Amino acid sequence: MSLAKYFQFFGTLAAVLSPALVTFASLPPQLTTQLESQREVSLKFPDTSDRQAPSSTGGGGSRGIDQIASCIVADETAEAGEMPWQNSLQALMPKTDLSKTIAENPSVFVYVPKTTAKSAIFLVRDKNGEEIYRSEFVPPETPGIVQLTIPKTVSLEVEQEYNWELVLMCNPKSYFSPENEYVEGLFLRTQLNSEQQKQLDCVRQAPDLQNLLEFPERQSLFSCVRQAPELQNLLNSVRQTPEQRELLDRLKESPEQAKLYVEALVYANAKIWHETIDNIAQLSDAHPQEWQELLASVGLEDLAQEKLLNCCTAD
After folding, report:
1. What does the radius of gyration of the chain's CA atoms come to, in whole angstroms?
2. Which helix (H) or strand (E) holds 296?
3. Which CATH architecture has domain 61-189?
4. Which of 29, 113, 124, 144 has the most crowded CB, counting CB atoms within 10 A?
5. Are 254 and 287 in contact (CB under 8 A)?
6. What does the DSSP 8-state code read for residue 52?
7. Domain boundaries, the chain
8. In 183-195, which positions are buried (b, 16+ CB within 10 angstroms) versus exposed (e)?
9. 101-144 pLDDT, tens per residue?
10. Across the chain, where does the E strand assignment appear?
């Protein structure tokens, strides 16, 4: 990937690097002008339009009924005749591609509107349509974003695609009732290539993350960085702004938060969605701007202000 693209996708890596590392004086004048004209962004997930997602991925709906599901408490601020996103389930994932994970037990994030449903069902099927996991839980009392995690009792196979579905049981007697509200998505469990794995191992094994983030000034301490060219590019391709320096100062207070952020940069560069959003979700309270920018980068800016809820416990 070119230097310009690294600036575009990972501009705020400067937030976790020493302000003395890189100056525009070392860059070609034409590239400097292009970079200075770009909008300052935080972590941004790259385009994944190389493969189309199934048409049902992303937004929710009731089965066969072109109206708000019976158990959804409609948003009274919406104009007559409209169905705003607040009135349906919404999957937090890229809309133009199946999402990818490297985990045996990944999580999915879903916006759940205000509902009178007393039960919700989360299930996962393999490529043959066989159900490999099902859980039932009580939906949250307030609208917001929930994290649903596949338990360790279920292990996803590498290079296999899986379909997941979340259903609000508006009709508690029938899973397939057209009254129910549902959303579904498709994800692939994959593996990092050898270069990407080197990057991740280097970040995780750094004895002093702040020293790692000051590469290349302390490069003698981190031979692993020199052996991972892509990570060198991520650590070197930065811009300095007051906002990024402010984030740097806050990340210095928590090495664990800094590590989550840099890991997310590696995942995003590898187009691994589930681990990217999982890491940034853990930082959302302390660094809400990073959460908002990540969602905006995949067209989910409307959901960026919604609360992450402590939910949901399966039966």
Report:
1. 21
2. helix 288-297
3. Sandwich (2.60)
4. 113
5. no
6. P
7. 3-41+193-269, 61-189
8. bbbbbbbbebeee
9. 999 999 999 999 999 999 999 999 999 999 999 999 999 989 99
10. 61-62, 90-91, 99-101, 107-112, 120-125, 131-137, 144-149, 160-168, 181-189
